[in-house]
Amino acid sequence: MAMKSQLTLFEKIWNGHVIVDFGDNTYLIHIDRNFLHELSGALSFKGIDEAHRTVRHPELTFATIDHVVDTEPGRDVETKIPGGSEFIRGLRTGTTNHGIRLFDLDDPFQGIVHVIAPELGLALPGTTIVCGDSHTCTIGGIGALAWGIGSTDGEHVLATQTLVQARPKTMRIIFDGSLGEGVTAKDMILYLIGKIGADGGNGYAVEYAGSVIRRLSIDGRLTICNMSVEFSARTGLVAPDDTIAEYLCERPFAPKGQMWEKAVTYWKTLPSDSGARFDKEVTIDCTDIRPQVTWGTSPEHVVAVDGFVPDPADNSRAGARLSMERALSYMGLAPGTQMENVKIDAAFIGSCTNGRLSDLRLAADILKGRKVSIGVRAICSPGSSQVKRAAEAEDLNKIFLEAGFEWREAGCSLCMSGGAGGEGFDDQQRVVTTTNRNFEGRQGPRVRSHLASPATVAASAVTGHIADPRKLGK
Q1: Which of 22, 160, 370, 400 has the fewest CB atoms found within 10 Å of its own CB?
Q2: What total of structural domains would you count in the chain?
């Protein structure tokens, strides 16, 4: 009798969605959910309209406005971002013409697409999900197979509910041990990228596993999966478990009644089999992780917050040395600088990485009873309108405002120098931020961005320099 094949989580989802195997590692895959925002959505609608095509399954596509909308109070379609208003109108027209649900600016469910997808129960374990945004991999935190696509592929999904894809290799990253005081999911993923490099996941679908992952909240898992693309992975996933089921239960768009019971039964079959084999495995001892902060222009340019800027001369690889030297020049830092001595001009809390309610609570624990340092501009943009309302119900907004933060509407905001009036931060300002990218100009012309957790950002805002949140406590 032939033994049953031992499969990974990724393989189970992938195999269940293959329509055609074209050979040469190329497949036609069924897509369960397609998410649009005003940038990718407007372009995809333009493409299918010009080709005189229709949307095959409008009930499987959902749209939101998040990327180029202002996050200042009183915002409307007339965004200050150049060309932004046209994208918003294009998305509104496309969703109306094709019968697609849009979470518009006045919708109580509006927010960053990767925040609202799991929050509303639109994203479910075992499903395939695409969106015209590289951080779609965030949704893997609830056990979905999710990845970013371009607008041309977006047209294909709208017209056919399928996509031609190459099958990635598989990697398992095991986080074991225990997290120390003040160490968060953001610190875990930054530490990992520092260890394996910004190209360490190239060509892989990554499953995050281990005792620490199992103990993480769903928000923490979403944060880790969010930054899978920052080490070049195709996507990241966490196996569904009771924590995920509890999170999704009673979400607005989640299955109900008998369909819920059937869904949970299916989800229990998805975790990787004990004998499943991965193309690569990495183990991280979380006991070694301290709060992290980036010093350069790549997520791999990272050290502990109580550490020092490294010296390029200590790196044996010529290419890496040149990259480090350029990063130090752009960031205005010298080798050997103690990170806690680096003064900042601004602080930002939000984004699809760290704009959830638990992130705001974490920052508020630091901010309560304290004031933002004189000369530091501090901004908080909740990840969704639901998060904003929940935070306000807990009076978290009052803590942020009393500390000296600007309290914004939901959206991508200053993650990409897009929202918050479209101005970005000022020229050459140094910003400590909960976002996911720190390349040159990401948050404004010549702006110097340091990636960190909400706790580290809050601690830095009130001290006026990059700060170790463990030294402030609650």
Answers
A1: 22
A2: 2
